[in-house]
Structure formats: structure tokens, C-alpha cells
Amino acid sequence: MTRFIAPLFLVVFALLPLGLTDPYLLNALIITGILTICAMSLNLLLGFTGQLSLGHVAFFGIGAYVSALTALGFDVSLPFGLRVTHEGGSPLLGFVLAIVLTGLCGYLIGRLSFRVRGAYFVIVTISFAEVVRLVALNWVELTQGPLALTAIPNMVLPVPSIGDVALRSKMQNYYLVLAVGVASYLLIARLVASRFGRAMRGLKENESLALSLGINATRTLTVAATVSAAMAGAAGSLYAHYIRIIDPDVFLFSYTVTMVIMVVSGGKGTLAGPLVGGIIFGLLPVALRPVMAPEAQWIVYGAILIAILFLMPRGIVPALEGLGERIAARRKAGDKPTDAMPAKMGANP
Amino acid sequence: MSTTSSSAILNVEHVGMKFGGLTAIADLHFDVHEGEILSLIGPNGAGKTTAFNIMTGFLKPTQGRVLFRGRDLSQTRPNEIARLGLARTFQRTSVFADDSVRDNVLIGLHRFGDDTRATALLDRLFPTPAARRAENAVRERAEAIIDMVGLSARAGDKAGSLSYGEQRLVGFALALAVEPKMLLLDEPVSGMNASETQGFVRLIRKVRDEGVTILLVEHDMPMVMEVSDRIVCLNYGRLIAEGPPEAIRTDPKVIEAYLGKSAAKLEQREVAHA
Amino acid sequence: MDQLLQHIFNALVLGGTYALLGIGLTLIFGIMNVVNFTHGALYTFGGYAMYLAAVALGLNFFVALPVALVAGLVLGAIIEFTLLRPLRRSDIDTTMLVMIGAGIIMQSGTLWIFGGVAKAVPTPFPAQPLTFGPVSLSYVNLFVLCAAVALIAITYFTINGTKLGRAMRATFQDHDTAALMGVNVSLIYTATFAIGSALASAAGALLGPVYVVTPQMGDLAAVKAFAIVILGGLGSISGATIGGFILAFAEELGAGYISSGYRDAMGFLIIIAVLLVKPTGLFARAERIG
Q1: Contact B72/B65 with Cβ under 8 angstroms?
Q2: For position A19, what pLDDT does the model report?
Q3: Is residue B178 part of a domain?
Q4: Is residue B124 part of a domain?
Q5: Contact A213/B178, CB-based, under 8 Å?
Q6: CB nearest A115 (choices: C107, C109, C275)
Q7: Per-residue model confidence (pLDDT) at position C1
């Protein structure tokens, strides 16, 4: 029954803006969509390969900066008298470059950090995100540092027979995010169902056994990290051209935490999990904002994270699945007595 | 290629392994011939599993080397060794517990019918007809392997929910999925009852008759004596005897090291396990 | 040259507190296999405990310091008892995420209660530094260095010279065997987490008066503690001690001679170097192969 979640969400969210005029709510939905794409990409790593990457916000932020700088242009001097000047160009080119460059970053970080596992891996990924934030803060010539990159142009899409269309309205951005979200979902669904997905699952469940079956751990994990990073980079690009101002705060650890909460609460390692978690934790601030301060909201999030890990450690979607299976099993058991076990496999003493 | 006999598929050449100051294996030297069933026996702690881990690249020996079909495995990683055709099972039950038996074997078949890289990538992302054909072929192969080990009736069940004996069969099926030229089985029948063990003996023979060389570590002596072409006996990390089952059965060194001294211990172990 | 001496002194002061942070983290990981994401929040907690004791309660500076340390000890014990004990059989990722949740609650709670404005903690030391030619040593920095070294020494003594320490070391080796030998492993876990927390809290209480106390002060501290622990090898106490000083020297000299903006990136550079050369850390004991 959980496999109907994604199509159901698609229908609901494709139709929702038709009856929705509140710009504040539409804005919240767009941000939720962008964060949900991040959560989906994080799930590829955290859920499907079992590697807890806590530096995911780095790719989101790099994507945002790459895309914004491609569109705005820059002029920086490098050591040895080198100087790089870029005039500024199409936001769409920025979107593509954001994907390519964050994918490359994901590849490099993967190559480096998959030399270790577990706690070491987690720490390396966190430190990476922290350093990228410091670079964004300190390389003022390129990033304007804390002064932020401002007046980032809206995304521009070439439309046949009309020409280039700048996506200025919230509604346009909403559907753009929805389209990228659907594409990301389908990509992950295909990857997970392929032989590559099987290799990932093998590594997640039992790495030694997977190795003994010829699964190349480093390669598989690095590919997952690359795809995951590129997807977060795409989300970052969408964010930059929608919000139109970015500063080094896009690298804050709290964004990573938000993504992690979305994945863990929804159900890591499930396709629908990040969608469910993303919607809940994307829209929760809308519900909580009138009643409590941001600090208090974060206290609530922290408490929910702990509560879910204690009460529903596998997340909402697997819990629903388990419920569905139990109902189905009970119905089946009512219909006919339990299937006879194959006789030759006697129970072990 | 040094002085290896032409029929040897695996050469263990003067392998030694030390953990800290502890010698787990000292100067282990033997060959496995193509197409035979060779058993590695010895009391607990004799270094059998360590030897297995060295042959499959999970441990790097501190001395000597292992050749598989003439190729030195010293610098080869476990997954590469598997791809060369040397597959193994693990001593402790080792399956992907959260997946169905079918999905287990499908993970094992992750490379089945691997094709050229550019189109393969395309096939991964889009449901092309070629991709569908390949997927069907993989699934057919999985059913064939599951049928061969006799688990068809349980193909849809979670591997973790199976009995120990059945889980060992899943482990065996996983190793078969690699399409090995040689199989290393670490205590494959522990946890199996007598009839399951008999079935497993038939299975090993069948696999061997299909051209797969087998190296076996096992404590079930009647089973070892029945199935092996040759036996290598270790004690305290050293090779103490090598030969056909009849010779090993009567070898005084083996009797002293293995059967005599630890018979009482073995019995205790049985009690502890029950 | 004169500048170098000044940098060395600064690095020693910083290194002492870094070592405190690193030892706490590595102790908890080594014995409990828990990556403590509340470590930064505990450091912040120490700073605010110091502020409360010294300013709000008006306690003497030298009384407030042990109060902050004990408060960290108690808070650590509470966290272990309520959050980690029920999760003993969970995997490391689950405990990590629970600790992240707890860290968020602590940090946001601090922000909620005290607001975002930095608080200053007055010290009884003369503002005029000791000067030796061009090198100036402030009294409070000297005190921080001495206090940190004393705490490190006490920790070493506790672990190597007491009955509790022996039980901790046994648990570190193998908690199943330790339990068989009659060690109360649950108690050791609580004690370990409490001691680690107290060290983090003490580091915050020591550095709080040197700089200022803010709700975010723990963020960077946590990242640095992680770097130190990777450098020294997860679970190695002497590794964390040496790692703390290495990081402090790298930062101090890097900031002084390369670029002050990237001072806080030194830890990551060190991590990369360690990963390339020896992924398990410079001082990690060999993994047992089981």
C-alpha cells in the first residue's frame, strides 16, 4: 500500500496550487519541495547504502553558489597572478553546472571518505561541510562572504516557439521544483531497482558478504555519493534562483539535521520515506510558527527526532508497511489455514 | 608461474600469519587440484578460518603468498578475488537477513550478464527493452540457483526467518551466484540436521561434477570422510598431515592432535551448543 | 622569532582545552561506541554554568569552576541514563542520531533561555599581562593552561590508577568479558559518559571567561573535538591529548603565518592528511580481528 504514496503525492501536489492562493503557504511548499529533494538525495546514501553522511548541506550550498555565480558572474584573482573573470550567464547553465560540479565534489569526497566507515565517515563528512562554509565566508572576492550574493536572477527556461521564460512567479517555481522532484524520485527508483541498487543493498546489510560476492564497495559507494551530491546540488540551484539571495548560512549544520530528520522519520531506505518525512517537517514550521519561537521549534524537532528513534526506529513508511502486512496476513489466515511448510525441511532442534 | 603442478588451481605457498606476537598460521604449504574436493581439518583454533580469510583476501598474510590459477593474490581485494572465480561462504551464518531468499540471490547475481558500460548505464536509468530482457535473464538464473539448492518453496521468505540449515543453503546459493571456478566452504553443514547434511553432500558433489573445485572446512568428521578426495590437517597453525581420507583416518599424528586429545572437548562443545 | 614564542604560548593554552575536549569524546567513543553529538552542547553548557555560578549566584571564580565541572558530570549522567541506556542494543547510527537530537535540544534551549547575546564572565586575574620582552602572557591564560593540564593529569590517574579506571579499561577491551569478570558495565557506561561530559563542560568553563559565552560556542568546539579524535585515533586517550596540542599548534601557526580566516579549517586539513596516510588515526591501537 505504501507504493501508492508517491503517485498520490504527485496528484495532490500537482493540483494543490489550483486551489491555493496564500503566497506564504505556497512559499512554504516550494521550500519544502527543495528540502525534500535534498532529503531524497540524502536517503540514497543514508538509507540505501547505510552510510550516515552528515555533510550533505555542503552539496546543497555548493550547488546554490555555483548556480548563482554562473548567473551573476565573478572576477577573482588566484595565486600566481592568475585571474578568472566570468561575465555572467544563463541560470539554466548554472543549474547544469551546479549538478556537474557538486557531482564532482561528491565523487572526490566519496573517494576520500569511503576509506573509512562508521564514526570516522560521519566526522569526515561533517568537517567537509564546515570547511566549505568557512570558504564561503572567507573567500569574499568570490562569494561576498557574509554580505551575501544578492539579486540572483530567476531561473530561465527556453520554451519552444515562445523563447526564454524567466520563472518569476511563485506558481512557476512551484512547478519547476515539482518537476525536478519527480525526476529525482524516478532516477532514484530506477537506480535502486537496478543491479547497482542490489550492490548497494548488499553492502548496507553485510559488507563482508557483499565483498565476497564480488561487489566493489568503494566504486558502488562513490557512485551513490556522486549521484546523491549532484541531486542536492540541483536542489541548491533551485533554491538560489528562487530565493535570489544566498549567504554562507546555506551551509548551516541545521539544514543537514532537517534533511536527516526528514529521512529518518519518513523511513530511510524506502522510496516514499523522504517524501512523507519531507512534507511533515517541511510544513511543521508553518504550523508551529504562530505558537512558538524558532528556538522552541528546534527543541520540538529534536524531541521528535528522539521520539521517533525510540518508538518507530525504522520510520513512518516501514511502520505503515508492517501494519499493512499484518492486516493482510490476518485476512489470509482467516481465509485458509497456514500453508504447510515443505516437509523435507524439518525444524532444527 | 613457479614449480606449481599443472593441475593445481590454488597454491598456498609457505603462508604465515601473525597477529601481534601470536602465530595463527606458520608456513602453510599445499595445493588444491582442479576438480577435487579437498577438506581442511583441525581442532578449534588450528587456523582454518584464518587460512580461508587469507585465501579470499580478507586478511593479508605476513609471509608467503597464495596463487589462484597462477595469479598472485597478495595485492588483490576480496571483491576482485570473487570476480576471478574464487568464492567463499562464511563460518557464521551469513545472509542478507532482511531480504527474501530470491533477493539474496539477486544481490549475488549483481554482475550477471554484465555488458558494455555506456549502454549499461543507459539501461540502468531507463526501462529499455534490453534492460527488461537482461532483468528477466537475471531472475531466471536466480530461480535456477534457488531450485538447485532446494529452496524454491521458500524463495519469497525473508532469509533471516529461515532455519540455520536453510540459511546455510542461502549462503551456498549466494556463492554459486558468483559463478565460481572454486568454492571455499567454511563449516557449511553446522546447524544442519542429518538429512539436510546428506542433501548437502549430494549438492556439493553435483556442483563439483559441474567443474567447480571445492575446499571445505568442516567439523562433521563422517561428512568430511565421505565427501573428500583429499584431506589436509592443521594443528596450531601448522600442517601435520595430508592425504586421502583413509590415510588421514589412521594417521597417528592426526589421531593424537585431533581425535584423541580433543574428543572430550568436542563432546563438551556439543553439550554447550545444545 | 618573538612572534613564534607568542604563538607557541597561545597554542599551549588552546591545546590544553582542546585535549580536554578530545579526551572526553574519545573516552566515550572508545568505551561506549557512541559518537557524542552533545559534546559541543556540553561545552556550551560548561560556559553558561560558569556564567550562572559566577555572575548570577555571585560565587567566587575558583568555586564556580568546580561547580560547572560537577554540573557537567551530573548532566552527562542524566543523558546517559535517560537516552543511551535504553538504546544499548541499538546500532551506532541510531545513538548518533539520538545524540544529535539531544544536542539540538540543549543548544536551542540555551538560546531560548539566555538569548543570543554573548555573556562575559569576569575573572579575578589582573588585566595587565605578564610580559617577557615581546611575549605577553595573560594571567587568565596561564591559569587555563595549568587547570587544563591538572585535569588531564587527574583523568590519566583516574583511568590508570584507580579501581574505576581498571573497570573502564576492562570494558574498553571487551565489555562482555568485563561483565563476566563482575564489572558493572552499566555503571561504567554512566561513569564514562559523565566523566567525558565533565571534561567538555570544564573546557567550556575555562574558555568562557577567556572569550565570551554564546549559545553557538559549542559548534566549532565539537567539530574540532572530532578532528582531534580522528587525528589521535578513536578511543585513544593519549592520541587525543597529543592530537589536541597538534591541532592547536596547526591552527595557531596557520592563522599566524598563512591566513587567519582559515584558522578553523586546519582541523579538516589534518583530517584529510590523516585519512590519506593512516586512516585509523596516528595513535590508534591495532584493531582486533575477530
Answers
A1: yes
A2: 81
A3: no
A4: yes
A5: yes
A6: C275
A7: 61
Lookup result for grid cell 582542546: C18
Indicate the pLDDT class of residue A196, thresholds 50, 70 and 90: confident
| Of the residues B112, B130, B161, the one at which a domain ends | B161
Nearest to C35 among A119, A298, A313 (CB): A119
Report the CATH number that the domain containing residue B259 is assigned in CATH: 3.40.50.300
B17 shares its domain with B150: no
> Does the CB of A286 have a partner CB in chain B at under 8 Å?
no
Same domain (yes/no): B119, B45: no
Whether B251 is in a domain gets the answer yes
pLDDT in tens, A275-322: 999 999 999 988 888 888 888 999 999 999 999 999 988 899 988 888
Please give the sequence-ordered ranges of beta strands (E in DSSP) within C58-166, or none if there are none.
130-132, 135-137
* Nearest residue of A to residue C84, measured between CA atoms: A310
Task: Mark whether B56 and B123 lie in a shared domain.
Answer: no
Do both B51 and B117 map to the same domain? no
**Candidates A124, A301, A305; nearest CB to C271:** A124
Q: Are B122 and B88 in a shared domain?
A: no
How many CB atoms are closer than 10 A to CB A171? Answer: 15
Considering B115-119, B241-245, C233-237, the range whose residues carry the highest mean pLDDT is: B241-245
Determine the residue type at C273. A
Q: For residue A345, what pLDDT is reported?
A: 39
- Report the relative pairing of strands B8-19 and B22-33 from DSSP bridges: antiparallel
Domain boundaries of chain C, sorted by first residue: 2-217
My answer on whether B126 and B260 are in the same domain is no
Between residues 164 and 193 of chain B, which touch chain A (CB distance below 8 Å)? 164-166, 174-175, 177-178, 191, 193
Q: pLDDT confidence of B123, banded at 50, 70, 90?
A: low
Complex ipTM: 0.88
* Through-space distance between the first and last CA atoms of chain C, rounded to whole angstroms: 52
Q: β-strand B230-235 against B22-33: which pairing, if any?
A: unpaired
Judge if B18 and B66 occupy the same domain: yes
The percentage of residues in chain C with a pLDDT greater than 90, rounded to a whole number, is 54
Residue B99 DSSP symbol: S
pLDDT for the residue A347? 39
- Quote the DSSP letter at residue A149: B
HSE (CB half, 13 Å, CA atoms) of B63? 13
B80 or C267, which is more confident: B80
pTM recorded for the entire structure: 0.85
Structural domain that includes position B155: 96-161
DSSP B184-219: EEESTTTT--HHHHHHHHHHHHHHHHTT-EEEEE-S
Contact C188/C168 with Cβ under 8 angstroms? yes
Clarify whether residues B149 and B264 are in a common domain. Answer: no
In total, how many domains does chain B have? 2
